[in-house]
Every structure is written in structure tokens, then in C-alpha cells.
Amino acid sequence: MSSNPFVDYLNQFNVLSPNHSKIYDEYTYEANGNNFSFTIETKIESHLISIFKNEPHSVILTGNAGDGKTRLCRSIYNNFSTSELNDWPDEGIIDLKFDKGIIRFVKDLSELKEEVIENELSKLQSYIQNNHQEKIYYLIAANEGKLTKFLSQNSQMNYLKESVRERLKTYTNNTQQFSIFNLLDVTSSLYVDKVLEEWNKESNWELCSSCTRKKTCIIQFNHEKTSKEQVKDRLVEQYRLLDYLGTHITMRELLIHISYVLTGGFDCSDIQNARHGELANQMDRPFYENFYGHGIEAEAFSEMRALKAFREVDPGNYSISNIDDFIVNGDLSSNKKLEEIHREIFNADLDLKLGYFIKKLDIYRNHNKESNDNFVDEWINKLRRKFYFEFPEESLFNRKSLIPFDYITDFGELFDNAHKQGKIKKALITGLNRAFSKKLVDPSSDLLATNDNLMIHGTYKMRNLKILPENARLEMDHRASKFFLSVDEILIPMDLHLFEYLMRLNSGNTHNLLREDVEILLDTFKNELIKFSEPDPDYLSILRYDNDKGMYIEDEILIP
Questions:
Q1: CA 7 to CA 15: how far, in whole Å?
Q2: Cα(200)–Cα(189) distance, rounded to whole angstroms?
Q3: pLDDT digit string, tens, across residues 151-168
Q4: How far, in Å, CA of 173 to CA of 187, rounded?
Q5: 91, 248, 357, 395: least surrounded by Cβ within 10 Å?
């Protein structure tokens, strides 16, 4: 039996495979005479081309390893050159003449010797200071830490050090003489849909249609499932959750992760040569298990950072009674629609071991007392994940209740929704008051800048609190994913962690698990508010415990 070369291509992203490639400069792989070329169009690439075509100046690209800095340098070179760049020279630096001068490409600043770095950055500083009169423009891929450390140790580069510091602080400080683009600002979720769309094209899977193992192929099963719009949207939804939490996944990490979601680490030879025990192992790798890294070897986690992030939000770990009841008893609910959906999801498919699950379910229901069966413990976590991705009717169950963030829907609805932002303000103020004082403060429309001794240094009206979304980015694939709370121009960034914490405080819900993520941030915000407060000289404002309400209320003491 022949194998599908596209599956071989996916296997290069398998971190445990000997075919694994450490650097995905081009995302191409050639096998059996078939060439798979994978390119994602990005705004930053178009923006860089526009810079050098219209208003050329020097640019530094920063970001994590795997964010695509080197790939961008290669793409820009190929755009302005008459011939493609096949291999970088050993020194990692290339000059390219174009109609407006010379672009000097530095593949990776951190790979250069100290004296070479000093020489190149000195030239860069000189070109920026004289407004590129030499018509030589740098495009440098650099590690932010390496760049800033080197500049801080070389006093003769103070001008460049300050220029870099300003631009790393905020991209709005970029100018027509010098720009820095931090690829950590790219929103990971924007690329997931594109990768799944490209990799699930039927043309990539045509050879599988004639394979005799198609019906028992977990790779084919995962391809078919993740090709469905609903499942694909929910995979993207999970990546969007990481955006909300401020977790950046590099392009390399994303490709490794999504390839594993599809293949489970197997290739065609594994499928074709599988015996009974091996087939049972393959059945344990459906896409929804692979997405969270269940069953994967522990050593792979060092390369698959996305798995670590997704393990924190795994819907299989949280028990919601009505969902668990549907999973176990949904086909006996006396609701024809629910019974039909249950039969469609929990059937005799490959991921449910070709009918083995149905038999085990029957034994559990009818013979559980005699069998002492651990059926629920064995299956329930897996089936919650399956439910999360495959249950079709959002109106029948709160599917997102399986995610450990109670207010994720509210957070998502805040974007581009001034009415929702206005409604949520009072809840956020109550949450802030309780966070500042570490007491159960009576709900109020006023934000109280309170210290740990319950003294109120300043009172801010609701109108003073503004919820500001991130700015739109025209030059980069960046989708607004967090907000800033502003009180008289004092800001605190609000991602989903902080929002969830404040909303739980407002509702009196459990919040301890989130405290470590937000406590320093909130204390800094509180101290800034106290610093700029103007207490009334005639009254001392405090929080006093009210026995009737069982809460702390605002009170005043006249200063004699």
C-alpha cells in the first residue's frame, strides 16, 4: 500500500519524528516527487514591502524563536530580488540592491559574534541619525533580550538604545526613520483557521480515498472531523481564549500543534501496519484528545508549548452535572431531539472504538452493581472534550461552562459593544473595591481608593471609569484581545484573568485561584489612584463594617 505524501509532510512537524525540522523557514517539504508549499499571507509582510517600496527606512523585527522573523526576511528579499534566496550565507548578512538603494538583511542578530553585532548596530545608529543619506536600510531579525542587553553595555550607542527603548515600549513611537515590529503582538488565533483550511483541502487527501485502511485510520478521522465548520470554529475558539489570556503561540508552535491534532503523531506506515494492540492505541488519538496532548510522550511538551497552555483550559477536567448526565443518559432523555443528537455524537465511530463504548455504556447502566465497573472514570473526561467540540446546539447546553472561566462570554461581548461596557462598569467597580480593601464591600457606583487599613484616600465616580479596548493595528495581524481600565488617565490592563477575578469578586464567587495572576497588578493600580487622590481635609473617609448588611460600607468621620 502506498502512503499519502501529504501525511509525510505533516510528519515533519512531529517533534518525536526523525523527520522533524527544527526551523520552518519556508514550511515546505518534498516527498516522492510531490512538493507541498505552505505560505500564509500576513499583514506585516505586506507592510514591510510597502515600507521599502514607498518610504524606506531601517526596521528591526523582534519576537520569540519560531515567530517567523527569518521567514519574513527571506520573503522581503525574494520580493525585491530577481532571484530567490536559497540559502543564507554563513555570516547571515546579505546586501540587496533595489531601486531606492540597498537593503541590508541580518538573518539573526543573536547568531553573530559580539564584534560583528557592534559593527552592524553602529552602522544602523549612524544611518538613522543622518536620515539614511547613504540609502542603506537595515532589516534585522533580533531577539529583544539580546538586542537590549548589548545596547545597554555599549555607551557609544545611547542614541540607538533610547530609540529602541521607545519603540519597544509602544509601536506608536515608530517613525519614518526607524521602526521596530514585535511579532509577539501577532494574534495567534487569526492563523489557526488559515492553517486548518489549507491542510484540510480535499486535494491533500485524495490518495486516502483508495486506502483499504481508511475506515480504521485515525488520521483520516481527524481530517474529516476538523474539516467541519463547527469543529474548526471551536478549535479557533480555544486559540482565541489564549489571546484573551495574553498567551502568545508562535507560528512554529502552532504548526507543530495543529499537525499533531491531525495525525496524533502517526504516519501512513503506522496505520497500515497496525496490529490489534496498535490499532487500539491509535483510536485513543482523536483530534479532541490530541488538542490537549493526552497520550503524548512527556518529552514532547518541551517543544509543544501550546499543549501546556491548553491543558490549563481543558474542558474535560470540569464536571457540569447536566452535561455529564447527557453524556451518560442522553439517549434515554425522552426528548427526541436530544436522543437523536446523543446517537449522532456517541456512536460506533473510530474514536469510540467501533462500538466498544456503546457496549460498555450498556453494561454500566444495566449491570453496574454486579460489575463494579469504572466506566465513568475511564470515559467521562474524554467524552466531555468530544461534547465540547461536537455538540451542535448551543441553545440546549451552556457548552462553555466546561471552560474554567465563568465570564468568558461577557468578556468577548465587550469588544465593539459600548452598551455592554456601560452595563458592566458597576460590577467591575464593586470587584475593584473588594480587591483593594480585601473585604466584602457593599456594592457601590463609586470606586474607592482604599488602603489595607480601610482608609479611603479618594472616591471616583462611575463616569470616571472608562473601558478602553486595544487599538486596531493596520500593519499587523493583531485582533484586540484585552482592554484597559482608565480612571483619570491612570491605566490598568485588563485581560480575561483580571476580568474574571473582578467579576467573581463582584458576585461573591470563588476567586482565590486567580489571585496570584492579578494581585501585583491591582496593588500597583490602587497605589497610583491613592497617589493622585485628594482627600477631603475636613473628613476622614473609611470603610466601616455594617452588621445589618454583613458588609463594609463607606462612612465619614469629622476631623475636629
A1: 15
A2: 17
A3: 999 899 999 999 999 999
A4: 21
A5: 395
